[in-house]
Amino acid sequence: xxxxxxxxxxxxxxxxxxxxxxxxxxxxxxxxxxxxxxxxxxxxxxxxxxxxxxxxxxxxxxxxxxxxxxxxxxxxxxxxxxxxxxxxxxxxxxxxxxxxxxxxxxxxxxxxxxxxxxxxxxxxxxxxxxxxxxxxxxxxxxxxxxxxxxxxxxxxxxxxxxxxxxxxxxxxxxxxxxxxxxxxxxxxxxxxxxxxxxxxxxxxxxxxxxxxxxxxxxxxxxxxxxxxxxxxxxxxxxxxxxxxxxxxxxxxxxxxxxxxxxxxxxxxxxxxxxxxxxxxxxxxxxxxxxxxxxxxxxxxxxxxxxxxxxxxxxxxxxxxxxxxxxxxxxxxxxxxxxxxxxxxxxxxxxxxxxxxxxxxxxxxxxxxxxxxxxxxxxxxxxxxxxxxxxxxxxxxxxxxxxxxxxxxxxxxxxxxxxxx
Length: 420
Description:
Elements: E1 4-11, E2 18-20, E3 27-29, H1 33-48, E4 57-61, H2 65-69, E5 91-94, H3 100-113, E6 119-127, H4 133-141, H5 156-170, H6 175-193, H7 206-209, H8 215-219, E7 228-230, E8 233-234, E9 243-252, H9 253-259, E10 264-273, H10 288-301, E11 310-313, H11 318-328, H12 336-341, E12 353-354, H13 359-362, H14 370-382, E13 398-405, E14 410-418
Parallel strand pairs: 4-5, 4-6, 11-12, 11-13
Antiparallel strand pairs: 1-9, 1-10, 2-3, 6-9, 7-8, 10-14, 13-14
Helix pairs in contact: 3-14, 6-11
């Protein structure tokens, strides 16, 4: 059983924080990667009532700041959050593609449980929109197995399209049925995202303006509005290219309980890796390593899926929301799509609500920030401070995050429990 608790959290707004001159191509950075780090880090410390001098270590999850923002050695900048209090504090960068934020949290937990730290600040950040679409696509492709995938222009939409094809073939889903299922998943995230004031596609955003809150509305879009990106995945099956940051403060559970105030216990973690080359997976209709991560996290926490009230899952593509839903055990294998069609997993579900934040599809996906953001969002739900939609049928006690890096490669599952 984990002996660490989250005692504070902060999430910046996610979005596209650049301005491009259409005539000259000049790019103006409206919120730099440094601005995002300072906002998230200072916000989390304030939320926890902790000062920089109280922090024993800082861990920063970020995927490719050198490519996206021309800044390697980025973690060291975290000292600027509190230059006096954090000077000389150990600061470490963690990288695991889209799961960078979760592995940063796990490294901090390990330090706390080993007795090397009592209080940790963990951040996740990515600034993606300084690059154009081609540049961002290339940067993201470096999280694939480069010799056989990225080098051959096999992008991440194409990699997850292989999962979609494998899933459809395994469960004999006609193309029309799969398209409606995926659109239903996307619509659920858009409905939740519009109530999240921090979401990239929130109130007044494209999904709101176009009214994309039902599968029918998404399926009615013209090919120009919803082009095929990698068959069978269309534009609205893909998560967003976002800028943003999130941070949490973690403390030994016994210390958190002693100090009082707001906290949520990290009850269990599961971290399981698949082979990096997609060709080595040998199974394209489920997340085998994801299921193992779920098993480990649930075993450590002593819970089953029946105990879980809400989940933030890694919907980098709508097909992955189906795969993570099944890996968690919320649906039987091959049945998640039909459960979504039946209206399950929304905020009114008496069981488990999924992606109340809007998920990566609507909240946004600044890669290095995503895992920390998931933990921050679940923490806020469990402590009665939901950001956006909340379960309407129950007060949540147990929440789960399911963060995936690469093409189903790095799988991180965390069980969090409201402090009693």
